[in-house]
Amino acid sequence: MGCGHDARNDSEGMTGLLKEFILSGFDVETAIKTVNSALCMQIERERSASVDVLCIDRVNRTAKMYKIGCAETVIKKGDKFDIVLPLSLPAGIIDEINAQPQNRRVQKGDIFIMASDGVTQCGGVFGDWIQNEISEEMSAQDIANKIMNRAVTKWNGAAFDDLTVVAVRIE
Fold first, then answer.
1. What pLDDT score was predicted for residue 159?
2. Whole-angstrom Cα distance, residue 64 to residue 28?
């Protein structure tokens, strides 16, 4: 969370830990809770990190979203939009966080758009303005590029926070 060198290092460290736990066989929920505990035990300075994980089961056509202290996710399903909000404060703030996934059924053509708060806070309500930015014909990369370009333009190249966008289209 935050910006600058310390925030980047905290984010990279938390991401590395989370990845290692998952690759070692921990389920995502346990990995998130373990990283949260590690961050809470830091005594030299307060550390926190947002967690925004999307797991797609292509066989069962389901998506699990683990959203801890992060910006909302927008899901485009046909002509409808679904906004998924975080369930907990950032990791490292409190001892017990809600690491339960938010589940959604997915189908071909659904688009998941995840972005950092530097993007979602670049003007207006993210879920509202994004509806005017994307169309069915656009690729996931084109969607991410268009949203990023809007954010960079809105911040005049000097955003207060990091700018990250990921778009995923279900095939």
1. 63
2. 10
Q: Which residue would you say has higher pLDDT here, 95 or 152?
A: 152
Category of 102 on φ-ψ map: left (φ > 0), alpha (ψ -120 to 50) or beta: beta
In the numeric block, which tokens belong to residue 93?
Answer: 């703030």
Q: Which of 79, 93, 76, 92 is nearest to 140 (CA)?
A: 76
Mean of per-residue pLDDT scores for the chain: 85
**Of 2, 48, 7, 10, which Cα lies nearest the Cα of 160?**
2
Dihedral class, residue 61 (left if φ above 0, else alpha if ψ from -120 to 50, else beta): left
